[in-house]
Design goal:
By secondary structure, this protein is mainly α. The protein has helices at about 1-10, 15-30, 40-50, 50-65, 70, 75-80, 85-115, 125-150, 155-175, 180-185, 200-225, 230-235, 235-250, 260-265, 285-300, 345-355, 370-380, 395-410, 410-425, and strands at about 265-270, 275-280, 310, 315, 320, 330. The radius of gyration is 29 Å and the shape is elongated.
């Protein structure tokens, strides 16, 4: 059997499938490296999202391979042998499964050199997500083999590719608000990352694996079928798999569309003082982030009772999570560039200082003033307020400049006290009006 499998790997469409799928996967990933450069979880999740194209390609590869007997006109000859059809199909199924799995995993290996120097966090969940993706490719290839045998026409392979894309795009719309159903039946749904801390629950991966294994089994039965009864019986694995997957996947109030990994959000600190910490998923960026953070703390040190520590801002919006507010802690937003390194250090420094190290994103129902915060921040920077937002009304920055000019006419000690008051009010989500002019509302 192993000798036959080796022959299949050499002479079937397996080798061509590896090259085509690998090339397509690498091109898709390298078109937008900034989507997966933050780390390994981003790589495996974005690769799963690209199954919207790779899965239909695997369908087409299977259909093309299945036409081999029809093209060679040897179907009757093989049917006359004593070996059962199911046994004859096993090497073909095995060869194609090995081919698409190798292509899928080799795509991940192709991006390793790109982020190996900065990606540190590699949870076990990443391997599970990649394994489910490989299983999806096997299911697609085996389904393609089955459909190619039933419809041995030249147009079957391209038609299946187009239909596969359409199916994956339609599934989320068809299930409407039941996103957990889309997660089961679409291997690419829900894999787009909204945050670098995003993950996939184990029960979701288990449900997906059950359905995809059942789908692969249905394709294998359909390929080996010799009568209409066995073809109808091929539906049984799919029905059982779908039912079991629905029982396993979390739903209703237990379902979270974009879950967050709390371990990825944990703070990892650099050596030395003052203390600078970033999330575990960005721990490879500590050598780049620490100097920027300490420079910001040096500027904020002009204030009485200044902050002494920098933590990464791990705020997420889906679901809504945010780190606790602490007077001694400045929150720093980490962005990763397309090469996996810290993006725009100057902007990060500017944001930390001009917001006074107070994250006001979670404030609701307050009249926090942009001009007040900007004037205070630019006093710390030692230059006139400016904005690069073309949509901002010009009077906003004009008011900030006016406040800043007023601060310059005051003793530095008094200005520092007023700016410190602004920071405390911002941390408490209070009204900032009049705090810089001494006429608090």
């Amino acid at each position: 059997m192993s000798r036959i499998l080796g022959i299949e790997l050499r002479r079937s469409a397996a080798a061509g499938a590896v090259l085509m799928l690998l090339l397509a996967g690498v091109i898709l990933l390298y078109v937008a490296p900034q989507r997966w450069s933050p780390g390994w979880m981003s790589v495996v999740m974005i690769q799963r999202e690209y199954l919207v194209l790779l899965w239909p390609l695997a369908l087409a590869v299977g259909a093309w391979q299945s036409r081999r007997e029809h093209r060679s006109n040897v179907a009757e000859l093989f049917a006359s042998t004593a070996r059962p059809r199911a046994q004859r199909m096993m090497p073909t199924l095995g060869a194609l499964a090995i081919a698409v799995t190798c292509a899928y995993l080799a795509t991940v290996a192709a991006v390793v050199p790109w982020i190996i120097g900065t990606a540190r966090y590699l949870p076990a969940t990443a391997f599970v997500i990649a394994a489910v993706g490989a299983l999806a490719m096997i299911a697609a290839a085996w389904l393609g083999l089955a459909f190619g045998r039933l419809l041995p026409h030249v147009v079957t392979a391209p038609a299946l590719a187009v239909a596969g894309i359409g199916l994956l795009m339609v599934i989320p719309v068809a299930v409407r608000h039941r996103e957990w159903l889309a997660l089961i039946f679409s291997p690419m749904f829900g894999m787009g990352q909204y945050t670098d801390y995003q993950t996939v629950y184990g029960r979701v991966s288990a449900a997906q694996a059950i359905w995809l294994a059942a789908l692969a089994g249905a394709g294998a039965v359909l390929l080996a079928s010799g009568s209409w009864r066995t073809r109808v019986a091929a539906l049984l694995p799919a029905i059982l798999g779908a039912s079991l997957a629905i029982m396993v996947i979390p739903r209703d109030d237990k379902f979270v569309a974009t879950p967050v990994d709390p371990v990825a959000q944990e703070q990892v600190c650099a050596e030395g003082s003052p203390q600078v910490c970033v999330s575990r998923v960005h721990s490879g960026l500590l050598p780049e982030a620490a100097p920027v953070a300490r420079q910001a703390l040096a500027l904020l040190a002009k204030l009485p009772d200044p902050p002494t520590t920098v933590h990464e801002d791990t705020t997420t919006y889906y679901p809504a999570t945010s780190p606790p507010r602490q007077a001694e802690v400045v929150l720093m937003r980490i962005t990763v560039d397309e090469h996996g390194h810290l993006a725009d250090k100057a902007h990060i420094l500017h944001e930390m200082v001009t917001t006074l190290g107070a994250n006001t994103d979670g404030c609701r129902g307050t009249s926090s003033s942009v001009p007040v915060m900007r004037a205070a921040g630019y006093w710390l920077l030692g230059r006139e307020p400016a904005t690069d937002d073309p949509e901002e009304p010009p009077e906003v920055n004009a008011e900030a400049v006016k406040l800043w000019q007023g601060l310059r006419s005051l003793p530095e000690k008094e200005v520092a006290a007023r700016v410190s008051t602004v920071r405390r009010a911002a941390m408490a989500c209070e009204d900032l009006g009049g705090l810089l002019t001494g006429r608090a509302q």
